[in-house]
Each structure stands twice: as structure tokens, then as C-alpha cells.
Design a protein that fits this description.
Blueprint: H1 2-16, H2 23-47, E1 50-51, E2 54-62, E3 69-74, E4 81-82, E5 87-91, H3 94-158, H4 162-225, E6 228-230, E7 235-238, E8 247-248, E9 258-272, E10 284-289, E11 297-305, E12 330-337, H5 340-344, E13 352-357, H6 365-378
Antiparallel strand pairs: 1-13, 2-9, 3-5, 3-8, 4-7, 5-6, 7-9, 9-12, 10-11, 10-13, 11-12
Length: 390
């Protein structure tokens, strides 16, 4: 278009206005043409860059089971849309159900032990007041026996009769029996207190077992729930690798299939690095996708990925070869579709063209707008052939 305009100007000057061509005029027109076409192209590429290197991308999840077992049922058909949380397949839950039942029985027994230990502690604590009452009664009886013995001794000093001696002997015997009763009551109280301490320790032990078994039961229930593989998002399963009876193991090298998440469809477009100096997140984008001729898709710049694989060096024992160091001078730009409903219906890996409209040089945006619309209609007649990467 620019060349046609330039040629038209030259024809008007020499054919219509009949200006005599001289060396100075020809040189001036050449310089003016270079600046006119080159300047517009420079402003255009910096203000509304356009590229044919783009592809629609979606997150892909490898369906690796958390537990091992045989596939019992497959509920999702390959390449059929499912919603987040829909059941994809089931692993035979019988072994994990057995574990849940076993640990559940252990938990019930542990809780019963706690109830039994609480009852034993309550009984032991009840025996302590009884033992204390018996001890108090025995001490009172002992004091009475000592008093009676002292009275008998006082009487014997006054009256040396045989009856006094008998009373003294009887009082001494009663005092000895009272002392023995006190010792026995003290021993009973100590035993009751020791039994209470043992019951309290047994209760603590029983109570400490319950959380551990509850944790085991939660783990067993979690493993049982993992026998049902759910869809991690809205999308579809492709590349099913299982049939009913297939043995699955929780290894990333042996996935059951591949899940394509369509809820996060975006575009990765590649531009020369020097064309992205004015590109900012939020800039408007127009896109044409090869599988959809005649349609124009709108989007926004998410971010520019300021890195390229050319600058990445793998940790090896070999010194990087300077002759092989270099870059293709391209940066990738992530673009989000403006309409999420449209984005979810697009296929992954679709190529096409994208034009970014920055806040600079808006007068040149029309060039990219015309170009992208021409590409949209040309898709009906011109086949798209992917160019191999250089």
C-alpha cells in the first residue's frame, strides 16, 4: 500500500505536473520514499506489531492416581466435555474399605477404653473420701484408747488392786488395736490414692491413643475417596490409557490419561524483541485462528514473558561452546481471550495470527487492522501450512 502511494506520487509529479527529472529531484524522491515508507513501517511495528507465530494453549494435567488398584469402571468418554468434579473413573475400593472398617473398629475399641478408664478413675476417686473417713475414725478411736489407758494407769497408782491391773492391761490392748487400726486406715488411704493415680494414668494413655487412631482413620478414608478419580476442571480427557481391569499405580510415568483443562484457554504469540518495547499488559489484541476462517477474536495482553530458552544453560560438566550461543531474538506474549465462553470452545494447538495495539502511534494501527482482516478472509482460500522452526 505504501509503495503504491509512493509510486502514485511519483507519477503525479512527473506525468501530471510534468516536472523535469533531474539528479537532485530523483535523489530527493528516493530519500523521501525511504523515509516515508521506512518511517511508517518503524512506527507501525513499534505501535501495532503483528505475528503469524501464535498458538492457543491450555493447561494439561496428567491423570495419575493417588492410590493403586484395578480399574473398576470408566465413566468419562475420550474427548467428551466434562465439568469440574465429574467422575472420570473408579478404582476397586474393596481393599481400602477393609482398611477403613478395621481402623474404625480400632477407634471404637479405643473410645470404649477411654470410657472404661474414666469409670475406673471415678471409682478410685470415690474410694479416697471413704478411706479418709475410716482414717479419721481410726485416729479418734486411737486417741480415746490412749486416754483410757492413761486413766487406767492413774487409777493403778492410787489403787494397787488386781482389778486396776486388769483395767490397765485391757486399756493397753485396746490402745494397741487402735494403733493398728490407724496404720491399716493409712495404708488403705495410700492404696486408694495410688489406685486413683493409676486410673488417671490409664485414662491419659487411653485418651492419647484416640487422636492417633482418628488420624489413621482419616488417612484410610482419604485413600478410599481417592479410588474415585474426579475431573480437576472443565475440560475433556484425551489419550485414555486404561480399560476395565487395568492395574493403576501412583507413578507419574504411568498416567491413566491426559486431561485438557479448557477453563484457562490462552494464546502464546511470538514477536521480535524490538517490537515489544511499547507493549503493556491490558493492550487490545485482535486474533485470527486457522480453524475458524472469517472469524475475528478479541483479547488482552496478559504479560510479556521476558525470557527465552536461548539464555538457559543446563548444568553439565561441559563448558558452553561460544559458537553455539545465540538467540533467535524472539519473546513470547501471553494473551487472554476477552470472552471466556468463546475461549472454552476453542481447540488446543490452533495456529493463527495476532495483532497487538499499543497506546503509541495509533494512526498506524489501521495497517494491522486491515492486515488481520485480510488474513481472516484469506483463510477460506489459502491453506495454512505450519512453518518449521528455524
Amino acid at each position: 500500500m505504501l509503495i503504491i502511494v509512493y509510486v502514485a506520487i511519483v507519477l503525479v509529479l512527473f506525468k501530471v505536473l510534468r516536472i523535469k527529472p533531474t539528479a537532485y529531484i530523483i535523489a530527493a524522491l528516493i530519500v523521501a520514499g525511504v523515509f516515508m515508507i521506512g518511517g511508517v513501517v518503524v512506527v507501525w511495528t513499534q505501535s501495532a506489531p503483528i505475528t503469524d507465530k501464535m498458538v492457543t494453549s491450555q493447561y494439561v494435567v496428567q491423570l495419575v492416581p493417588y492410590v493403586k488398584g484395578q480399574v473398576k469402571a470408566i465413566h468419562a468418554e475420550a474427548n467428551q466435555r466434562v465439568k469440574k468434579g465429574d467422575l472420570l473413573l473408579e478404582i476397586d475400593p474393596a481393599p481400602y474399605q477393609y482398611t477403613v472398617n478395621q481402623v474404625g473398629a480400632q477407634l471404637a475399641a479405643s473410645k470404649a477404653n477411654v470410657v472404661q478408664a474414666e469409670a475406673a478413675l471415678a471409682t478410685a476417686k470415690t474410694a479416697i473420701p471413704n478411706a479418709q473417713a475410716i482414717l479419721a475414725k481410726a485416729k479418734a478411736a486411737d486417741e480415746l484408747a490412749k486416754t483410757q489407758e492413761q486413766i487406767a494407769l492413774n487409777i493403778q497408782r492410787v489403787d494397787k488392786a488386781a482389778i486396776s491391773q486388769l483395767n490397765v492391761a485391757k486399756a493397753a490392748q485396746e490402745r494397741q488395736e487402735a494403733d493398728a487400726a490407724v496404720q491399716q486406715a493409712e495404708a488403705g488411704l495410700a492404696q486408694a490414692q495410688a489406685s486413683a493415680q493409676q486410673a488417671a494414668a490409664a485414662l491419659l494413655t487411653a485418651q492419647s491413643n484416640v487422636p492417633a487412631i482418628e488420624a489413621q482413620l482419616d488417612d484410610a478414608r482419604f485413600n478410599l475417596a481417592q479410588c474415585k478419580m474426579m475431573a480437576p476442571g472443565d475440560g475433556y480427557v484425551t489419550n485414555w490409557q486404561v480399560q476395565i481391569g487395568t492395574m493403576l499405580v501412583p507413578l507419574p510415568l504411568a498416567p491413566a490419561g491426559t486431561f485438557v483443562n479448557v477453563s484457562g484457554t490462552a494464546v502464546a504469540a511470538v514477536f521480535p524483541q524490538n517490537w515489544l518495547s511499547n507493549v503493556e499488559p491490558g493492550d487490545d489484541v485482535e486474533m485470527v485462528l486457522n480453524p475458524y476462517p472469517g472469524r475475528l477474536f478479541l483479547g488482552k495482553v496478559d504479560y510479556v514473558i521476558p525470557a527465552t530458552g536461548g539464555g538457559q544453560f543446563a548444568p553439565t560438566g561441559t563448558i558452553p561452546n561460544a559458537a553455539k550461543i545465540g538467540s533467535d531474538g524472539l519473546y513470547a506474549v501471553r494473551i487472554n481471550f476477552s470472552d471466556d465462553a468463546v475461549a472454552r470452545k476453542l481447540s488446543i494447538g490452533s495456529g493463527g495470527s495476532a495483532a497487538i495495539y499499543t497506546q503509541k502511534g495509533k494512526a498506524t494501527h489501521v495497517i494491522s487492522k486491515v492486515t488481520i482482516r485480510m488474513k481472516k478472509w484469506l483463510l477460506y482460500v489459502i491453506p495454512t501450512v505450519e512453518k518449521p522452526a528455524s
